[in-house]
Amino acid sequence: MTTTTAKTQDEVLIREIIDARANAIRNKNVQGVLPNFTQDSIGYFLATPLQQSPLKEELTGWFAT
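Given the sequence above, the corresponding structure tokens read:
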């Protein structure tokens, strides 16, 4: 496998992850957003309070709006 081929495959995988996350956000699918975060992730949002944790509850609340 050449470096160019490996880079192209990596780019495809990265694009798939980004697209899956974007689709999950558009569809308000909390479970689709969470796989890219660790259990102890902290979110920072413009609405107060700025720091919110755990992320799953915050995403559920956000997607409910």
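The chain has one domain: 3-63. Try to locate this feature in the token string yourself.
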